[in-house]
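Team,

Forwarding the record for the chain on the shared tracking sheet. I've put the sequence and predicted structure together so nobody has to dig through attachments.
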Amino acid sequence: MDYKELSKQIVKNIGGEKNVTSLMHCATRLRFVLKDPDKANKNKLMELDGVIQALEATGQYHVVIGSQVSKVFDDIQRLYSFNSDSGDDEEVTSTPQEKQSDEVKPAKKKNPISKLLETVISIMGPLIGVMAATGIVKGFLALFLSLGWIMDSSGTYKVLYVVADVIFYFMPVFVGFSAAKRFKMNELVGMAIGAALFYPTLAELLKADPISVLMSGSLLEAPVYTTFAGIPVLLASYSATIIPAILAVYFASKVEHVAKKYIPSVISSFGVPLVVLLISIPVTLIVIGPLAMLLSQMIAKGILSVYGLSPTLISALLGGLWIPMVAVGLHGAIVPIALTNFFTNGYDVIFPMITGHSFAIAGAIVAMGMKNTNKKQKGLAYSAGFNSGLMGVIEPALYGFLLAERKILTMVCIVSGIGGGAIGYFGAKLLQLTPSGIFALPGFIDTQNTGTQVGFIVVLVVMILSFVIPFALTLLMYRGKKDNISNK
C-alpha cells in the first residue's frame, strides 16, 4: 500500500491542512482535532483503501486505519506542518476563494468536557505504549517472583525492576514533557516542573515530623512540612502522578506566554525559562500540587464509591457497553479516569471490567473466518481475530465484520458483560499497568499475596470462556455469506 498517497487523501478529505488543529494517534486510529468538523468528507474517507472507519467523537475526528496507523501518521507528519493552537476555539482559516463567500463560518464551539478529554488524551496518549511495555515487564517480574524463579534481592531482579518501574516513578517528568508539547511551551521547562514535584530534598521532608497542621480535626486536615516566604507548603508524594503535572504545566504555559511578551528577545533564551520556573514551581508546590492531589483523590474515591455500590453490576454494565463505546469513540473518556485511579490507588478496577471484550470478539471473528467461503475475507477475519485476542486491538474486527452482523455483535456484548460481572464479583484488580489482550494477564498477579491468586485465576478463566462461548455460538449463528461484508 502507498501510505504516502493515502496520507495525502486523508488530509484532503479531512478538510485540508488548514482545517487541522492537531493530530495524534493511538493503536489503530488517527485522532484529528479539526477547526471545522463539517469540512470532513466521511463518505470520501470511507472509500479510501486503507481506511476502516471515520467518525467524530469526544471532540476529535477519528480515522480508523488499523495496525498500520503509525506508518500513515509518520507520513502525514513528514508531509504537513499543522498550524495548531493550544485548544482554544478560533475562526477557520479560509482560502482566497472562501473569502469571497459569505458562507465561511467559525468553528463549532467545543463543550468544556470534550475539550478536557481531548487535552488529557493528547497528553497521555503518547505515553500509554511505553507504560504498557514497562507494565508487561513488571507483570512478568511479579509472576517469576511468585513462582520462585527469581529473588527480589538479586541484581537481576533489581535491574529488570528499573526497566519495569522507571516511567512510573518518574511519571511527572514524562507528563511534564508531553503536557508542555500539548500546551505549546518549552518542553524542557515542562520536564523541570514535573521533576520539581518529587525533588529529593522535598521527598526527604515528608519523612520528618510536620512542623504544624492546618485545619486540624477536620476532613481537610493537612500537615505542613516546610514554608516558603512564611507560606505553608503542603507536600505530598507526587511520584507516579499525572494530574499535578498537567495542571502545573498548564499554569506554566500561561506564565511563559506573558513572559515572552515582555522579556527582550536578546535575553529571552534564559530570561523566559528563569521567570517561568521562579513563578511556576513555588505556585505548583504551594497551590497547584495540593489541589491536584485532592482532585485525584476525589476522583479515585468517587470511582471506588460507585464501584462499591455493586461491583458485579457496575462491571457487567461497563463490560457489556465497552464495545459500542469503542465503536463511537467514547472509550477514550474512560481511559484517563482509569489511569488516574491506578496512579492514585496503586491499582485499578475499571480496566479489569473490560478484560473479556477483546477475547469475545476474537472468538466470534475466528468462527466467522472458518465459515466464510471468501478466501480474502477468511484471511482478514483470522488476522482481525488474532489482533483482537492477542493484542486487544478490536477496531479491524469491529468495523470490518461485527457491525454488519448485529445479532453476533449483541451476543458478543452480552458475553463481554457477563465476563465483566464475574471479574467484578470476585473483585479482581489490575495491579500492574499492562496492555489489552493476552498481555494484560501478568497485570493481575498480586506479589503481596502468597496464597491463591484469585484475581489472576478469575481473569484467566474469563479470557478463555469469553473466547470459547462466542466462538461456539457464532458457528451456530453465522451463515458465512460471500458478500456479507465489504471487501475493503
